[in-house]
């Protein structure tokens, strides 16, 4: 039965996860990428070309301007594009009369100099990005001109090749040579497009200089070669400096100074027929992060310069102060004379286009052909997309837009002067921006069928877990989940999945995935319903034994945690709400304990001396300490943009920035101190339990491993954030790699030989043992007498061997595993976040202690003793999710700790995206992963507690009057709970069916709570799908909760698998001892 429960948990996890995945496919659908491409006839000034520009051609064009969409005017200049990653708009502003500029201020002086020297030849504009502001999404927008989709942020670790029409492909098709230098994301998105490419990995954010140095090495040679028409260089140092140090560090001043020198050298080397574009792909927050939609993140910089040719002025109708990033695509296509990509939604900005006369065309005719080509391209794409996705767009809105465009097609034929052109362009731009606004509002197309199925198949498993598992006794699961029936369940699900894959179109499902998830979930729900009906009698009987209004305070606490998702203000303040709810659960436990103590320990007159010696007082003080820890965690919370009173940020940084309070050396020292205290106390606990006796592999690892790991973790915390520049990165990475290796070694050891016990070798027959104050002669006489009478052999055969660590045989291994897991997480976290993790571990230890005493005092049998109370269950669940906020995380996309992806990984040590993703997941969801892997401690801590402190049994007995001082602890335990608890966790092995069933039930109950939580998040998104804050607050919160679900369920399975492995090893040990005893 051991592995039967495991397969049932896997089945339930897949069922819940399938419902969540199905909902996300309906709620976070990306727009459909179009594979059509734009083409045009390229007019030329060369008489030898096919489409030579003459007066006759111009006259023919303006007879019917609507037929000119397939024409491209000649190329104006070559283009150099310098992309400075994370170049925020404020980095390029020059502030006069500033005596002490901030590190990012007044460093790009070349921009101000060119603007002053040649105001008609230079432009400085705010470059507005669309969220999400991740590099890959911004590069897609900068090259396709299309709006990004919300869920595309998940692919930032793996940049797939772009299959949409884009300006890079159009340049290549037009036979314009293209050279690239810098971030390898470009070559991932556009492989085999460049004449020459100097691409370098972009994900080592601790490396500020390698990529930039390589670009600066090759850039002068490329500028001098002149065999290209477009040159792109993507610098990474500013972005990496922001991630590592933030924008207020002196390193930012150095990197911006380097960029200033690069721009100067390019300006000097470029010829008169070249346009220079310097741009950032996104901005950065005060902490140097990006990814969200705040002004700090979306406001990048764009600078344009042309040596010989002046740019068009403000009389063209284009915005001179701000440029939408998608507007760069048609603008760049216009400069190069290539077709505007098919899916572009941006407008040409003539403030960035050199005013070069086109033969046979006057100024307004040139502008008119450009804007009308742009308008027809947008119209063709938008209405074709709307025609293929009719349910997405409002019919009345589409009719209005179509009518307006038809009127514009008639109006464009009547423009014969610049005044009429200006009026026309103003109205045309308003119309095209209406199209863009329409796409922004309804681009993410909700799929109600998939959302409904996702909600249904997420709720029904939770409902049946409540009925079938929660209302059954642990001993009953052997009858409910038989091995053969579980095997048939998997076969039925496999058949249902094949059926869904084969016939999904017959049921109007759009994807094979929808069909597979729907039919496997439907089959599983039917099977769960069958099991529920078959055992309905026992379910009703157990349900009737539960008090109707029992655990009402705890239920209210759980309800409060689920209600968070339905209010944007609750989501914003979720960290504080969880802290109140967690403190509330500890208070409920303390209240129950105090109420019992008043009856047990203070039956007579309450005495102060008796109160001071009581166990209850110590545990109440421990509860107060836990609440103080929770309150201290407030100082570790990170802020959201919506929290105007956030104390982490001050608004003294001037326009464009909020200044972040710098981390102090005190926080680093406190982090190291907490790490040392945690590992030391854990080691002392294991040694007092006898689990560090002997020389087995796991004992040696638990004895020395945490010490080595804590030294490495402390060194990594201090050196990784040190301002010392001479420390090699590989040395810092080595410390993290040692901790990674220890965790992997721990996993291997637990898989092979998990026990931390030591069987004391039996004494030889001739051994004589005496105390120090006894005489040896009487003992020798007694020994000779036993040998003469033959009693010595019988004594040796009946002797029970001494086994160190057997009383905590289960929990000790779980705790040792947790130490290595926690140290890996500590290395991945920021120093202040690692303090939060240790604090949560301390709160968890206090919660286990209080609950262990309470469970013993309320238990009436082994079954009730091994099952934690509902309050402890909810408290542990809340603690797991509270740890997310205590470790300085927030449910916003811009605050994802991408830095964790590179801890311990230098450029020469693996570039796997899978490893990067796993490290970020470990960092972000360290709380749920850690506490759900350790969930079995809720079942074992009562037994280990009383094995270590047997006097607790005497102090907790309920019938002190019936027992005298000679009553043994075993008799007291039997009297209290019906079995001998003095043997500690060895008792769990003796009642293995109930023990394993109780842990299966506990894991399933956590499944139920997590499933209920993600269901509420999904329901809130469904209710608020047209809410103003749906994409800013509700959708990110759902994404975080969905990922937490995908992480928590496997963590619980790992926790149960760890328990099974320990149990099998204990079984082997007991059988070996019995076999040795028999022989």
Explain the overall architecture.
With 1079 residues, this protein is mainly alpha-helical. The protein is 59% helix and 6% strand. The chain contains 41 helices and 14 strands. The protein has an eight-stranded mixed beta sheet with strand order 6-5-7-3-8-9-4-10, sandwiched between helices. The chain has a two-stranded parallel ribbon with strand order 1-2. Helix 31 (831-858) packs across helix 36. The longest helix is centred in the C-terminal third of the chain and has 49 residues, at 1030-1078. The radius of gyration is 35 Å and the shape is elongated. The two termini are 30 Å apart. 48% of the residues are buried. This is GPI ethanolamine phosphate transferase 3, catalytic subunit. It holds the Pfam family Phosphodiest.
């Amino acid at each position: 039965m051991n592995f039967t429960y495991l397969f049932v948990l896997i089945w339930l996890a897949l069922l819940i996860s399938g419902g969540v995945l199905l909902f996300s496919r309906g709620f976070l659908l990306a727009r459909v990428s179009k594979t059509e491409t734009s083409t045009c006839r390229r007019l030329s000034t060369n008489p030898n070309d096919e489409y030579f520009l003459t007066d006759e051609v111009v006259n023919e064009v303006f007879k019917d301007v609507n037929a000119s969409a397939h024409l491209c005017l000649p190329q104006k200049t070559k283009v150099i594009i310098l992309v400075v990653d994370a170049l925020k708009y404020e980095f390029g502003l020059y502030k006069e009369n500033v005596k002490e500029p901030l590190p990012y201020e007044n460093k790009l002086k070349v921009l101000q100099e060119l603007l002053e020297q040649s105001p008609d030849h230079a432009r400085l504009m705010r470059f507005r990005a669309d969220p999400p502001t991740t590099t890959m999404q911004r590069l897609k927008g900068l090259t396709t001109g299309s709006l990004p989709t919300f869920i595309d942020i998940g692919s930032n670790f793996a940049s797939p090749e772009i299959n949409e029409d884009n300006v890079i492909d159009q340049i290549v098709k037009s036979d314009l040579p293209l050279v690239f230098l810098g971030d390898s994301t470009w070559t991932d998105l556009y492989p085999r497009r460049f004449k020459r490419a100097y691409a370098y990995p972009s994900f080592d954010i601790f490396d500020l200089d390698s990529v930039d140095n390589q670009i600066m090495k090759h850039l002068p040679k490329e500028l001098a070669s002149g065999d290209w028409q477009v040159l792109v260089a993507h610098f990474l140092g500013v972005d990496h400096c922001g991630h590592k140090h933030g924008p207020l560090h002196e390193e930012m001043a150095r990197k911006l100074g380097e960029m200033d020198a690069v721009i100067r050298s390019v300006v000097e080397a470029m010829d008169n027929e070249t346009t220079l574009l310097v741009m950032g792909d996104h901005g950065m927050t005060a902490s140097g992060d990006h990814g969200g939609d705040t002004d700090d993140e979306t406001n990048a910089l764009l600078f344009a310069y042309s040596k010989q040719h002046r740019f068009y002025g403000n009389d063209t109708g284009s915005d001179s102060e701000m440029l939408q990033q998608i507007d760069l695509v048609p603008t760049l296509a216009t400069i190069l004379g290539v077709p505007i990509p098919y899916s572009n939604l941006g407008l040409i900005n003539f403030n960035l286009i050199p005013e070069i006369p086109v033969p046979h065309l006057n100024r307004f005719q040139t502008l008119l052909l450009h804007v009308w080509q742009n308008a027809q391209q947008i119209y063709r794409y938008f209405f074709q997309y709307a025609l293929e996705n009719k349910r997405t767009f409002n019919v009345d809105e589409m009719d209005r837009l179509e009518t307006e465009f038809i009127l514009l097609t008639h109006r464009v034929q009547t423009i014969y002067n610049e005044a009429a052109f200006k009026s026309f362009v103003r109205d045309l731009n308003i119309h095209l921006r209406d199209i863009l606004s329409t796409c922004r509002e309804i681009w993410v197309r909700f799929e109600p069928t998939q959302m409904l199925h996702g909600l249904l198949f997420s709720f029904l498993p939770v409902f049946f877990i409540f009925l079938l598992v929660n209302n059954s006794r642990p001993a009953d699961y052997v009858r409910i989940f038989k091995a053969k029936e579980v095997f048939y369940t998997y076969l039925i699900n496999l058949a249902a999945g094949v059926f869904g894959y084969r016939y999904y179109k017959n049921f109007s499902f759009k994807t094979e995935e929808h069909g597979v998830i729907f039919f496997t979930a439907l089959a599983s729900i039917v099977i769960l319903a069958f099991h529920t009906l078959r055992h309905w009698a026992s379910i009703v009987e157990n349900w009737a034994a539960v008090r109707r209004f029992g655990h009402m305070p705890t239920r209210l606490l759980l309800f409060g945690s689920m209600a968070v998702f339905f209010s944007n203000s609750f989501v914003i303040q979720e960290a504080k709400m969880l802290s109140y709810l967690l403190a509330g659960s500890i208070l409920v436990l303390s209240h129950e304990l105090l109420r019992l103590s008043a009856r047990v320990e203070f039956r007579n007159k309450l005495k102060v001396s008796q109160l001071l010696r009581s166990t209850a007082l110590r545990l109440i003080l421990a509860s107060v300490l836990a609440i103080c820890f929770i309150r201290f965690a407030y100082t570790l919370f990170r802020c959201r943009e919506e929290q105007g009173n956030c104390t982490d940020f001050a608004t003294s940084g001037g326009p464009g920035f909020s200044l972040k309070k710098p981390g102090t050396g005190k926080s680093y020292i406190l982090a190291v101190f907490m790490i040392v205290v945690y590992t030391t106390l854990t080691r002392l606990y294991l040694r007092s339990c006898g689990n560090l006796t002997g020389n087995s592999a796991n004992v040696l690892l638990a004895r020395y491993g945490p010490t080595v790991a804590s030294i490495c973790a402390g060194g990594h915390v201090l050196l990784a954030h040190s301002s010392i520049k001479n420390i090699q990165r590989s040395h810092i990475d080595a410390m993290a790699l040692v901790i990674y290796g220890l965790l992997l070694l721990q996993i291997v050891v637990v898989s092979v030989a998990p026990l931390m016990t030591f069987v004391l070798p039996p004494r030889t027959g001739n051994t004589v043992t005496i105390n120090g104050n006894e005489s040896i002669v009487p003992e020798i006489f007694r020994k000779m007498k036993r040998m003469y009478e033959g009693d010595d052999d019988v004594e040796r055969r009946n002797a029970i061997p001494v086994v160190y660590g057997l009383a905590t045989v289960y929990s000790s291994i779980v705790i040792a595993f947790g130490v290595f897991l926690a140290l890996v997480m500590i290395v991945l976290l920021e120093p202040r976040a690692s303090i939060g993790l240790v604090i949560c571990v301390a709160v968890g230890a206090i919660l286990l202690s209080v609950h262990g005493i309470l469970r013993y005092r309320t238990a009436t049998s082994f079954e009730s003793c091994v099952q934690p109370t509902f309050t402890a269950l909810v408290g542990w669940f809340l603690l797991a999710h509270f740890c997310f906020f205590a470790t300085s995380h927030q449910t916003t996309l811009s605050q994802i700790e991408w830095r964790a992806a590179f801890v311990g990984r230098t450029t020469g040590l693996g570039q796997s995206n899978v490893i990067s993703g796993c490290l970020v997941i470990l960092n972000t969801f360290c709380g749920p992963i850690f506490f759900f892997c350790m969930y079995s401690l809720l079942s074992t801590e009562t037994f280990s507690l009383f094995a270590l402190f047997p006097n607790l049994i005497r102090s907790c007995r309920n019938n002190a009057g019936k027992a005298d001082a000679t009553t043994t602890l075993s008799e007291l335990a039997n009297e209290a709970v019906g079995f001998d608890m003095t043997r500690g966790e060895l008792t769990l092995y003796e009642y293995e069916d109930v023990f394993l069933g109780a842990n299966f039930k506990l894991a399933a109950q956590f499944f139920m709570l997590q499933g209920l939580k993600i269901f509420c998040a999904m329901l809130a998104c469904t209710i608020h799908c047209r809410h103003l804050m749906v994409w800013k607050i509700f959708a990110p919160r759902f994404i975080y909760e969905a990922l937490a679900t995908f992480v928590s369920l496997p963590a619980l399975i790992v926790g149960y698998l760890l328990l099974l492995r320990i149990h099998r090893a204990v079984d082997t040990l007991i059988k070996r001892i019995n076999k040795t005893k028999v022989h």
